[in-house]
């Protein structure tokens, strides 16, 4: 029974809940059981809210029994990336510096989940402060890809993607600063959406780079992502960068796309700069096949050029560290979080320094140093100033492209999931992995990642990225749902039906493949809050 | 603090030209803070509650810099800032932007201050400053920008109360996020030997402007208005500006004047002896009347300013700016000229009001209907007396509107001066408006003659010879009866009317 419930999509589960075929307590228990069964190997969760989840599920069951409208997703469980503040669970952004910190408030998106009667299962793992593409930089040990536990689940939101891919949760919340939703979706065979900048509130999302961060849905289907987006999206007066406008129903857009599979009249641009050399053969093959499928459905495919995309990574790795160096200055031990006092005491300056030395991991320190340098007097114009100019040019590239086409396509990532340790020795190669996803963040346009098959050479998922003009998120959902239906018609089943049995625990093979600093540490990691497990 | 060598002021002025500059911080009196919904301890009328609130109680997530918290701009603070900019004769930026000023300090919750850097809300203005003899001096304004205040540190365990030598420090974030406008002047030339006087008059003018706009209580002793005074000297005939010092902690008008005079004399002594001035922050010591060195300030201080990505630019509509411009009150300088002429005050009467800082109150009391002479009498008399006895500013005790109402009650004969003083006490004690206090305390003059006549009869019965004395021309004998009647009526009688009735009785 439990296995059946975890295999359901969020919308299918919601239907069964509404029909009274299952209770939220049953659905929540099934997912908690699944987590207890396999998370020792996958390690998607940093905190599991067992008792609280069951208590809330039973309350929602009671509300429904009493005849209250519990909303379209009432009683459906969900996982939450640890970058989001939750008043009843630790919120650490996978950093030592926030170990055990429980915020006195909920992020707006979390508050909206709760008022929509979703059931938070727990907090998911990530790269520390969302800096990374593999979760190898989590201070609490990496998450493993359920397709192959020796491989990375993507990052920074590897925990949310792996939880959804391995049926530990029907869907999850993520955050995307340079691809942290879309790239994990690609390497785990799931769906992820980075909304238009300002479409979803950032209030209560622990900031990495304020001008790039955006919270979004992680799911197994386009419709589930749309349903979640409908709940979390919309104006929030507590976030000044939040767009004050009404949005159409993304779920309606997804349903319309799944019903009408004809794509005649749809103009699709393939970004020349986001493909070719440096892209894995199997990734390129599946991408090309998908284009053919779209053409058969009536879409017009054209190649477009975005000449400034080649500078995107350089600009991004100046703007992001600059903003991050300032955003992370507040972690100083004075008001919250870790405090490390040097032996024999010290001045406040020495305590701040010792705390930050002990509390931040290597990638965080690297980016703080980069950002501090980029903003320094005498360097500002050459680095931060130039990067902002590049950002404007990239926005213009998008504007020009969207004059010709309705949507832009590229592979979501240059490769399938790589192995642990493959890129940690060379930060630059890790940064280059984000080449496809970064332009959308720099321009603020929405992007969706969805699975388009397995690469022939390694049998691992390949992702497609769809980008639309700013505020046209509905177009992504409509088109994404159409493509998803075309692919599943061709395959005869969802891609995740091919997921191999996930081992219940992780046995390194061969020994030493995971570098010592990435191995789980004693006392770290999953912390169940009660007897549910 | 060991006093440094000073050069005689007149000698200093012969050899050097003083150049001044001021940075004045105004705490805006908005209800909530600059970027958070927490109550503003500098809000109007906050003295009884918020100002004395327990540490770290007037805070929201942003004021503590909690992870995930975001700032939201206070719209009222923007309106106040635009009004202030307009009153300073500034242009209002079509687009202005907040920026982050990054530095680590425990009173700065986020370890950056949200301020404005190269895109301030107001820029390029000038202020007319009237010196004591009526000379008008124009001070050029470079900019006025919005920012947030930091929290407050209290250093414990050391002898000096400073961070050096302290065992530990307490942090109170109640003040963190209080909205500030910083007004920066351009270099001020030509003040010469009147530089100290100009310094005081400039700060007084800013205070008067701010108060007339109603954007801040502008009370220096509370830190609502804080002045940093920049002073540099250059030898006569030299084009290049000398090295400046920035003196902080000058918390009264008198201190501003004294601190500038001191810095001129101190710098002159150093330069005259062939030394050079260190570019530094200096602290003013009110008790000893000297400045002492603080932090060495170099132009290389790197705050790594960059545009605040959590906030969108401020783009005030033309309509808003026009509306605020139309609503500007007359300038304090014009107001003073008008007051002096219209109200017919002598120079010394006028100066008393200026010294007591009651010009604005007086003007508002007259606007509310009181006669200028009466308004002056009450403000400089009873109200100022109570204020002095309590060590507070008279303007904070009672509103001009209430004073005007009180005067009207006296004029109409409903209150005697003595009763009016009791009503005043009631109003100051927060019992309500004068009318309300009169009703609640039952203080109205008894205007019903029958009650008075009965009391007079009773008093006359006890002093039967009084009427004869009056008829003999000893009118002052009535005083004893008046006193008795007033006592019997518990002060609610109009003494003048009682006197009239007694005299009528004697003539009957």
From TrEMBL, chain A:
GO biological processes: translation
Catalytic-site annotation from UniProt: 81, 156, 180
Pfam family, any one: Amidase
Keywords: ATP-binding, Ligase, Nucleotide-binding, Protein biosynthesis, Transferase
Reactions the enzyme catalyzes: L-glutamyl-tRNA(Gln) + L-glutamine + ATP + H2O = L-glutaminyl-tRNA(Gln) + L-glutamate + ADP + phosphate + H(+)
GO molecular function: ATP binding; glutaminyl-tRNA synthase (glutamine-hydrolyzing) activity; transferase activity
Domain Amidase: 26-476
Top-level enzyme category: ligase
Region spans: Disordered: 510-533
Enzyme Commission code: 6.3.5.7
Subunit structure: Heterotrimer of A, B and C subunits.
Function: Allows the formation of correctly charged Gln-tRNA(Gln) through the transamidation of misacylated Glu-tRNA(Gln) in organisms which lack glutaminyl-tRNA synthetase. The reaction takes place in the presence of glutamine and ATP through an activated gamma-phospho-Glu-tRNA(Gln).
Family: Belongs to the amidase family. GatA subfamily.
Protein name according to UniProt: Glutamyl-tRNA(Gln) amidotransferase subunit A
Organism: Amnibacterium flavum
Taxonomic lineage from the root: Bacteria, Bacillati, Actinomycetota, Actinomycetes, Micrococcales
Gene this protein is translated from: gatA
Automatic annotation (TrEMBL), chain B:
Classification via Pfam families: GatB_N (PF02934), GatB_Yqey (PF02637)
EC number: 6.3.5.-
GO terms under biological process: glutaminyl-tRNAGln biosynthesis via transamidation; translation
Swiss-Prot/TrEMBL keywords: ATP-binding, Ligase, Nucleotide-binding, Protein biosynthesis, Transferase
InterPro entries listed in its UniProt record: Asn/Gln-tRNA_amidoTrfase_suB/E (IPR017959), Asn/Gln-tRNA_Trfase_suB/E_cat (IPR006075), Asn/Gln_amidotransferase (IPR018027), Asn/Gln_tRNA_amidoTrase-B-like (IPR003789), GatB (IPR004413), GatB_Yqey_C_2 (IPR023168), Gln-tRNA_amidoTrfase_suB_CS (IPR017958), Gln_synth/guanido_kin_cat_dom (IPR014746)
SUPFAM superfamilies (UniProt xref): GatB/YqeY motif, Glutamine synthetase/guanido kinase
PROSITE patterns, alphabetized: GATB
Highest taxon in the source lineage: Bacteria
SMART domains the record matches: GatB_Yqey (SM00845)
Major enzyme class: ligase
UniProt function note: Allows the formation of correctly charged Asn-tRNA(Asn) or Gln-tRNA(Gln) through the transamidation of misacylated Asp-tRNA(Asn) or Glu-tRNA(Gln) in organisms which lack either or both of asparaginyl-tRNA or glutaminyl-tRNA synthetases. The reaction takes place in the presence of glutamine and ATP through an activated phospho-Asp-tRNA(Asn) or phospho-Glu-tRNA(Gln).
UniProt cross-references to NCBIfam families, sorted A to Z: gatB, PRK05477.1-2, PRK05477.1-3, PRK05477.1-4
Subunit structure: Heterotrimer of A, B and C subunits.
Recorded family membership: Belongs to the GatB/GatE family. GatB subfamily.
Identification of the protein by name: Aspartyl/glutamyl-tRNA(Asn/Gln) amidotransferase subunit B
Species this protein is from: Amnibacterium flavum
């Amino acid at each position: 029974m439990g296995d059946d419930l975890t295999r359901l999509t969020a919308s299918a589960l919601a239907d069964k809940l509404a029909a009274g075929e299952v209770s939220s307590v049953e659905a929540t228990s099934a997912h908690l059981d699944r987590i207890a069964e396999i998370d020792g190997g996958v390690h998607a969760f940093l905190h599991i809210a067992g008792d609280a989840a069951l208590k809330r599920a039973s309350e929602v069951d009671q509300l429904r029994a009493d005849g209250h409208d519990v909303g379209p997703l009432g009683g459906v469980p969900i996982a939450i990336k640890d970058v989001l503040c939750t008043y009843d669970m630790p919120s650490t952004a996978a950093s030592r510096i926030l170990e055990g910190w429980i915020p006195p408030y909920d992020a707006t998106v979390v508050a909206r989940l709760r008022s929509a009667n979703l059931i938070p299962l727990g907090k998911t793992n990530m790269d520390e402060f969302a800096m990374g593409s593999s979760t190898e930089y989590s201070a609490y040990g990496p998450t493993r890809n359920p397709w192959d536990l020796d491989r990375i689940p993507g990052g920074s939101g590897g925990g949310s993607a792996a939880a959804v891919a391995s049926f530990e949760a029907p869907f999850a919340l993520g955050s995307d600063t340079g691809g942290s939703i879309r790239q994990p979706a690609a390497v785990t065979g799931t769906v992820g959406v980075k909304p238009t900048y300002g479409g979803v509130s950032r209030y209560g999302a622990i900031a990495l780079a304020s001008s790039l961060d955006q919270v979004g849905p992680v799911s197994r289907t386009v419709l589930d992502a749309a349903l979640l987006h409908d709940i979390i999206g919309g104006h929030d007066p507590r976030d000044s960068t939040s767009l004050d406008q009404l949005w159409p129903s993304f779920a309606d857009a997804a349903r319309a796309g799944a019903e009408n599979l004809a794509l005649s009249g749809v103009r699709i641009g393939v970004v020349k700069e986001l493909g070719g050399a440096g892209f894995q053969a199997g990734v390129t093959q599946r991408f090309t096949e998908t284009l053919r499928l779209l053409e058969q459905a009536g879409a017009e495919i054209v190649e477009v050029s975005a000449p400034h995309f080649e500078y995107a990574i350089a600009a991004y790795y100046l703007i992001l560290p600059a903003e991050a160096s300032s955003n992370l200055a507040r972690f100083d031990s004075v008001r919250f979080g870790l405090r490390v006092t040097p032996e024999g005491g010290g001045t406040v300056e020495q305590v701040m320094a010792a705390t930050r030395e002990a509390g931040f991991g290597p990638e965080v320190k690297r980016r703080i140093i980069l950002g501090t340098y980029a903003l320094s007097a005498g360097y500002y114009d050459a680095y931060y100033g130039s990067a902002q100019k590049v950002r404007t040019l990239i926005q213009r590239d998008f504007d020009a492209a969207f004059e010709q086409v309705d949507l832009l396509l590229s592979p979501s990532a240059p490769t399938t999931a790589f192995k642990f340790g493959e890129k940690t020795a060379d930060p630059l190669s890790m940064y280059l992995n984000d080449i496809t996803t970064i332009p959308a963040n720099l321009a603020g346009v929405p992007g969706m990642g969805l699975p388009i098959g397995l690469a022939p050479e390694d049998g691992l998922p390949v992702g497609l990225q769809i980008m639309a003009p700013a505020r046209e998120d509905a177009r992504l959902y409509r088109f994404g749902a159409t493509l998803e239906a075309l692919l599943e018609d061709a395959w005869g089943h969802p891609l995740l039906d091919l997921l191999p049995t996930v081992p219940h625990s992780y046995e390194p093979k061969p020994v030493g493949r995971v570098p010592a600093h990435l191995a789980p540490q004693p006392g770290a990691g999953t912390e169940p809050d009660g007897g549910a497990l | 603090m060991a006093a440094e060598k000073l050069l005689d002021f007149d000698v200093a002025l012969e050899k050097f030209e003083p150049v001044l500059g001021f940075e004045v911080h105004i705490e805006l009196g908005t209800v909530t803070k600059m970027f958070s919904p927490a109550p503003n301890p500098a809000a109007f009328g906050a003295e009884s509650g918020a100002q004395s609130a327990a540490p770290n109680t007037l805070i929201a997530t942003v004021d503590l810099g909690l992870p995930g918290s975001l700032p939201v701009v206070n719209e009222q603070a923007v309106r106040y800032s635009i009004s202030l900019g307009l009153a300073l004769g500034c242009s209002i930026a079509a687009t202005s932007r907040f920026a982050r000023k990054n530095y680590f300090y425990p009173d700065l919750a986020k370890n950056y201050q949200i301020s404005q850097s190269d895109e301030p809300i107001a820029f390029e203005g000038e202020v007319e400053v009237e010196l004591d003899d009526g000379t008008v001096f124009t001070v050029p304004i470079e900019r006025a920008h919005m920012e947030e205040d930091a929290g407050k540190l209290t250093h414990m365990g050391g002898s000096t109360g400073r961070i050096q030598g302290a065992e530990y420090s307490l942090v109170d974030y109640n003040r963190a996020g209080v909205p500030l406008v910083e007004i920066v002047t351009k270099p001020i030339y030509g003040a010469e030997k009147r530089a100290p006087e100009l310094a005081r008059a400039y700060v007084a003018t800013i205070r008067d402007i701010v108060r007339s706009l109603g954007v801040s209580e502008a009370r220096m002793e509370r830190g609502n208005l804080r002045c940093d005074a920049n002073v540099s000297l250059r030898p006569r005939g030299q084009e290049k500006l000398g090295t400046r010092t920035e003196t902080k902690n000058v918390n009264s008008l008198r201190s501003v004047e004294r601190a500038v005079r001191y810095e001129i004399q101190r710098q002159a002594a150093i330069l005259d002896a062939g030394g050079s001035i260190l570019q530094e922050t200096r602290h003013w010591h009110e008790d000893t009347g000297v400045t002492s060195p603080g932090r060495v300030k170099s132009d290389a201080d790197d705050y790594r300013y960059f545009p605040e990505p959590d906030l969108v630019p401020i783009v005030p509509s033309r309509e808003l700016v026009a509306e605020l411009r139309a609503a500007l009150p007359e300038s304090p300088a014009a107001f003073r000229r008008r007051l002096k002429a219209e109200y017919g005050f002598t120079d010394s009467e006028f100066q008393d009001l200026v010294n007591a800082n009651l010009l604005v109150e007086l003007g508002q009391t007259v606007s509310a209907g009181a006669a200028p002479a009466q308004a002056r009498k009450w403000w400089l008399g009873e109200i100022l007396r109570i204020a002095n006895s309590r060590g507070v500013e008279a303007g904070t005790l009672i509103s001009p509107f209430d004073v005007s109402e009180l005067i009207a009650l006296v004029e109409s004969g409903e209150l005697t001066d003595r009763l009016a003083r009791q009503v005043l006490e009631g109003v100051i004690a927060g019992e309500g408006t004068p009318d309300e206090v009169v009703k609640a305390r039952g203080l109205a003059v008894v205007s019903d003659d029958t009650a008075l006549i009965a009391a007079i009869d009773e008093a006359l019965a006890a002093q039967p010879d009084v009427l004869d004395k009056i008829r003999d021309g000893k009118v002052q004998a009535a005083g004893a009866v008046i006193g008795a009647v007033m006592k019997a009526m518990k002060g609610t009688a109009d003494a003048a009317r009682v006197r009239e009735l007694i005299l009528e009785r004697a003539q009957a």
